[in-house]
């Protein structure tokens, strides 16, 4: 963890946040610090005595009984996420023969058609300033937070997968992508003012209204209850700030029941387009949709499979009175 980031956005006790409007800041007890990086130690709450470990530079915020269903990612699935997030970099730097050996579906060959992360950054930047504080919920291996960390005051990435967060942190500290098909270099990202935490919407260690912009990247169709999730995320957005929802609306009974699927009448919203139901739901929280766009997204699974999505991206501004 970067000590400099903690001075910009102090961490607060997520356990106290459930019962207090102003949860206490966590005290940092480092065991190992090198060049402003806390490599190991703990974060402790004076109020409730909760403790959170810092392991290999990563703070771990998990809650017992968390209602977000996930499994520890395998090395192959993390490599798939790196290929998805950094397809453009890998295509430019790795030998074409090596890419063809590991891709029988044309994923890398079609990378020019996939500008998902570039398009998302282009969509967000006009709404951000160099003083903005940004949060990416469901950041996976961190491409968006890493890129925006070069443009804003600081960017946090949060994901429940320890393997994905370790990969994001490795990219941040080394400026390299390490894969079985070869290594690639992203030296500019090692200068990113970003930080990564293991956690989910049930264990966010931030004070209310901390962020100028919160982005939930393809998450809302993977939580048990979108309304509960949005309640927790809304608390992180400052008055007048932005909430960005990107999602393919790929509802699946493995993650949630049909009665809570947007576009299917969930939470008393109208049947029809998921994006309209989302806007209707967010209006109740005091948000107004100010921009929307559909963005192509290709995700890599393995050399015999990749998927093509059209992801909806909506930008919503929170009322200054909310």
Task: Describe what you observe in this structure.
- This protein has ten helices and 13 strands.
- The chain is 25% helix and 30% strand.
- The chain folds into two domains: 1-60, no CATH class; 62-318, Rossmann fold (3-Layer(aba) Sandwich).
- Strands 1-2-3-4-9-6-5-10-11-13-12 form an eleven-stranded mixed β-sheet. Strands 7-8 form a two-stranded antiparallel sheet.
- It is α/β, with parallel strands linked by helices and 322 residues long.
CATH topology of the largest domain: Rossmann fold
CATH class of the largest domain: Alpha Beta
Strand order of the largest sheet: 1-2-3-4-9-6-5-10-11-13-12
How many β strands by DSSP? 13
* Separate helix tally: 10
Residues in helix, %: 25-40%
Provide the domain count: 2
Unreliable residue stretches = 64-71
Offer a few descriptive terms.
alpha/beta; Rossmann fold; 2 domains; 10 helices; 13 strands; globular
Condensed summary:
This protein is α/β, with parallel strands linked by helices and about 325 residues long. The chain has helices spanning about 5-10, 15, 75-85, 85-95, 95-100, 115-125, 145-150, 160-175, 225-235, 275-285; strands spanning about 25-35, 35-45, 50-55, 60, 135, 155-160, 175-180, 180-185, 195-200, 210-215, 235-245, 285-300, 305-320.
Layout: helices, strands, pairs:
Blueprint: H1 3-8, H2 14-17, E1 27-34, E2 37-44, E3 51-55, E4 58-60, H3 75-85, H4 87-93, H5 96-101, H6 116-124, E5 133-137, H7 143-148, E6 154-159, H8 162-174, E7 176-179, E8 182-185, E9 194-198, E10 211-217, H9 226-234, E11 237-247, H10 274-284, E12 287-302, E13 305-318
């Amino acid at each position: 963890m970067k000590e400099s980031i903690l001075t910009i956005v102090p961490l607060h006790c997520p356990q106290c946040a459930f019962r207090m409007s102003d949860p206490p800041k966590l005290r940092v007890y480092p065991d190992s610090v090198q060049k402003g990086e806390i490599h190991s130690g703990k974060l402790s709450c004076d109020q409730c005595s909760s403790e959170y470990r810092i392991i290999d530079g990563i703070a771990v915020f998990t809650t017992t009984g968390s209602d977000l269903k996930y499994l520890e990612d395998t090395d192959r699935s993390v490599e798939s996420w790196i290929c998805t997030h950094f397809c453009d970099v890998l295509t430019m730097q790795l030998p074409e023969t090596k890419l063809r050996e590991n891709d029988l579906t044309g994923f890398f060959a079609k990378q020019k058609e996939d500008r998902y992360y570039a398009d998302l950054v282009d969509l967000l930047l006009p709404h951000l300033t160099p003083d903005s504080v940004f949060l990416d919920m469901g950041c996976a291996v961190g491409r968006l937070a890493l890129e925006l960390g070069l443009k804003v005051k600081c960017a946090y990435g949060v994901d429940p997968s320890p393997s994905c967060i370790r990969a994001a942190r490795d990219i941040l500290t080394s400026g390299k992508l390490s894969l079985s098909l070869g290594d690639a270099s992203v030296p500019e990202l090692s200068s990113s003012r970003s930080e990564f935490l293991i956690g989910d919407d049930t264990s966010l260690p931030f004070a209310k209204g901390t962020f100028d912009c919160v982005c939930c990247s393809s998450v809302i169709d993977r939580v048990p209850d979108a309304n509960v999730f949005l309640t927790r995320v809304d608390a992180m957005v400052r008055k007048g700030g932005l909430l960005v929802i990107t999602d393919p609306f790929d509802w699946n009974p493995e993650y949630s029941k049909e009665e809570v699927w947007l576009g299917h009448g969930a939470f008393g919203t109208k049947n029809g387009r998921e994006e309209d139901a989302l806007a209707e739901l967010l209006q109740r929280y005091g948000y107004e949709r100010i921009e929307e766009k559909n963005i192509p997204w290709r995700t890599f699974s393995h050399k015999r499979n990749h998927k093509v999505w059209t992801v909806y991206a909506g930008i919503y501004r929170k009322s200054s009175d909310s």
